[in-house]
Write a structure and sequence with these properties.
- This protein is mostly helical.
- Helix 3 packs antiparallel against helix 4.
- The longest helix has 28 residues.
């Protein structure tokens, strides 16, 4: 009985200790379940986008840096809309 699927039965382990159950539980941590969690994710994305925009402004002074700074939040708007739309279809 060296088969990995039957290892927990052979060792007398609880079913929740097997690898597939643990991976399932770990994967559930990364699922956005409510609008509050979605807004927290969008807030984090927005903070990162603004920080990246500041780096662009320091690397590319002038109109190039300002254009790159303006593009960063637009990507967050599109990602945020996609996240919120996916929550509404699940409910």
């Amino acid at each position: 009985m060296t088969d990995r699927a039957n290892a927990e039965v052979f060792c007398g382990w609880h079913a929740a200790c097997c690898l597939s159950a643990m991976l399932y539980r770990l994967g559930r941590l990364f699922v956005i379940k409510s609008k509050f969690e979605a807004f927290l994710v969008i807030f984090g994305l927005a903070n990162g986008a603004v920080e990246r925009g500041f780096h662009y402004m320091s690397l590319y002074p002038g109109i190039g840096g300002k254009l790159l700074f303006a593009v960063c939040p637009i990507a967050v708007f599109m990602a945020g809309a996609r996240i919120l739309d996916s929550l509404e279809t699940q409910a």
